[in-house]
Design brief:
Elements: H1 2-21, E1 27-33, H2 52-60, E2 62-64, E3 67-68, H3 73-82, H4 116-122, E4 126-132, E5 155-159, H5 173-177, H6 181-201, H7 207-228, H8 231-235, E6 238-240, E7 243-246, H9 254-268, E8 274-279, H10 300-322, E9 329-335, H11 367-370, E10 374-377, E11 386-388, E12 392-393, H12 397-405, H13 421-424, E13 435-440, E14 443-449, E15 458-465, E16 468-469, E17 475-476, E18 490-500, H14 516-534, E19 559-560, E20 563-564, H15 587-594
Parallel strand pairs: 1-8, 1-9, 2-11, 3-12, 4-5, 4-8
Antiparallel strand pairs: 2-10, 5-6, 6-7, 9-10, 13-14, 14-15, 15-18, 16-17, 19-20
Helix pairs in contact: 6-7, 9-10
């Protein structure tokens, strides 16, 4: 009898919520993966990683097979949040470092930008961000801030920066760049010391100057050594709103903790329209997975991380169903950029994603860096088990969500994204874009041209990143670990290379630039580039070297800096959701055959 009563109560709640949902604004749920490649998801062709919940989402909605992103996380996330090319907000770099590197630096999404969360907030939505932010944390002199609470989110629980190798406690990003960095530091100090002694012996400097040089050298090198080993305390932080909960961050049950907070947010606001941005740390390195998922995937630690993320997505979607909100919830799943194919673990294990048939990956403008697996579910609007192959972009979500919210776009700035609802509901059959511009950092490398007639799509590249071939025949930036956007790392093309991207997925067969038709394509594309550049207005560069310098007094700390240390209780209580990895869904092959 108690079981029967329970079932009746649950049924009443679901029916009541479904009735209420029909009369209110739709909920918005964004599921953003980190560094997940186009070929990492089952419904997009993967056979070594189990993603039954994402595959099921595709069966209930539409796969966007030509969806693009800026090929690096901070700029890509800026575009998603604002609907604008990142260069318009200064979220691009003309140097080597192209992401927000420290929580306590002054780099970040400018507070005067309008975010999709602010659109939702101003129309009566409850807004929550769970997971990774990576768009800055600093505040200006007037108290306007780049952190999530300053950019439209009522509630934030997660990582203000990103998931770094440092957070695993075994290695750090500096060693990833230079495996012998400590040796190199010692040799540099030794060389400078020997040089100072040589100058002293040849009477170019006196004894006092020699001692000063030696002290300065070893203090400098010691400071660099200390700085490298302090990254974990500085950047590996878990926060709730502005409170530091864990420092340094640990991965114990982290996915469950994030999932439970997301579920709790939806349950708290089931009577209100809500906007949930679930931003997963997976599968950025440091790779992690709960014990239940460890050593379960055929793709090693990387696959384990992706499969646990898929479990979490299943819990989020299941909660939407349980609350009776499925038919009134817009769900968008995508990745911030292509897979980081150059990533390797200390033991040589591949720890980066797979980009399917596409060349290149994260941090470059070859197709593998920009083409990301994407799914949209919106019952009654998006036809189930459908495929949309027209070019779209992550920044299209801003105007699309504005349309769903029935709120106007800001009139005081250029919005580059386009409303995708007419494409999603099949009122339109073609992309809302004619030209899409491809940036690598602050450098405009190319443009995608989608003619208004015909079925061809052209990618016109003025600059391409040089790729190397490793021992497995994979093409990537193996010599530099991360692809760079300028100098000797790129190749310039005059005339530009032109690819028919509808048939030449690997970008190996540029079209004949002497062909009159191709000449016209180049001319139109370059004219569009000129018009686009004229639309840009000068803004402060958020990646200027001075903005990237760590500022100790801006460091979030659960203690007295530099003695910051606290730990959240990561034990999952009895009310938490149980980890149950599922077998591969049978729809994986069904959807893959359609793609």
């Amino acid at each position: 009898m108690p079981v029967l009563i329970y079932i009746m109560l649950v049924t009443i709640v679901v029916v009541r919520n479904e009735a209420a949902a029909a009369t209110r604004k739709p909920n918005i749920v964004i599921l953003l993966a980190d560094d997940i490649g186009y070929g990492d998801i089952g419904c997009f062709g993967n056979t070594t990683i189990r993603t039954p919940h994402i595959d099921s989402l595709a069966k209930d909605g539409a796969m966007l097979t030509h969806h693009l992103a800026t090929p690096l996380c901070s700029p890509s996330r800026a575009g998603l949040m604002t609907g604008r090319y990142p260069i318009r907000s200064g979220m691009v770099s003309f140097n080597m470092l192209r992401i927000v590197p420290f929580i306590n630096c002054n780099s970040g999404l400018p507070p005067n930008e309008s975010t999709v969360a602010e659109l939702a907030l101003t129309t009566g939505y409850k807004t929550g961000l769970i997971g990774k932010w990576h768009l800055g944390h600093a505040c200006d002199s007037e108290g306007n801030c780049s952190h999530p609470n300053g950019q439209g989110f009522n509630y934030f629980y997660g990582l203000p920066l990103t998931n770094l190798k440092d957070c695993g406690g075994k290695t750090n990003v500096f060693i990833a760049w230079d495996a012998h960095i400590y040796r190199d530091l010692f040799l540099m100090a030794l060389l400078l010391s020997i040089s100072a002694i040589a100058l002293y012996r040849h009477v170019y400097i006196d004894k006092r100057s020699l001692i000063g040089c030696l002290i300065f050298t070893w203090v400098l090198i010691g400071s660099v050594y200390y700085f490298i080993n302090s990254i974990q305390i500085m950047n590996c932080i878990l926060m709730e709103n502005q409170k530091v909960l864990e420092q340094p961050l640990t991965y114990d049950n982290l996915t469950q903790r994030l999932t439970n907070r997301a579920i709790s947010f939806m349950e708290r606001h089931q009577e209100d329209p809500f906007f949930l941005f679930m931003s997963y740390p997976q599968a950025h390195t440091e790779l992690f997975a709960s014990e239940t998922f460890q050593n379960q995937s055929k793709h090693g630690r990387y696959g384990d991380a992706v499969e646990e993320m898929d479990w979490s997505i299943g819990e989020v979607l299941g909660t939407i169903d349980k609350l009776g909100l499925r038919n009134n919830t817009f769900v968008y799943f995508t990745s911030d950029n292509g897979g980081f194919m150059e990533e390797r673990g200390d033991d040589g294990e591949r720890q980066g994603g797979y980009n399917g048939p596409f060349k290149g990956g994260k941090a470059n403008t070859w197709e593998g860096g920009m083409r990301v697996p994407t799914i949209v579910r919106y019952p009654g609007v998006v036809r189930s088990n459908s495929i949309i192959s027209q070019p779209t972009h992550v920044f299209d979500m801003y105007p699309t969500i504005a349309s769903i919210l029935d709120t106007p776009l800001p009139s005081d700035r250029v919005i580059d994204g386009k409303d995708l609802l007419p494409l999603l509901n099949e009122q339109n059959k073609s992309s809302p874009h004619e030209f899409m511009f491809h940036y690598c950092g602050g450098y405009l490398h190319g443009v995608r041209y989608i003619p208004k007639t015909g079925n061809k799509i052209y990618k016109v590249m003025m600059t391409t990143t040089k790729l190397n071939v490793n021992e497995l025949g994979e093409r990537g930036c193996w010599k530099t670990y991360v692809c760079q956007c300028y100098g000797s790392s790129v190749e310039f093309h005059n005339p530009p290379l032109v690819f028919d991207i509808t048939t030449d997925l690997t970008e190996d067969n540029p079209l004949d630039s002497n062909d009159p038709e191709i000449k016209e394509i180049i001319q139109k594309s370059l004219a569009a580039v000129d018009e686009h550049k004229r639309s840009l207005t000068p803004v402060p560069n958020q990646f200027h070297p001075l903005r990237l310098v760590p500022i100790p007094w801006q460091q979030p700390c659960c203690g007295t800096f530099p003695f910051c240390s606290c730990k959240e209780d990561s034990n999952i209580n009895s009310d938490s959701h149980i980890l149950k990895p599922l077998p591969r869904s049978p729809i994986t092959e069904e959807l893959s055959s359609n793609s």
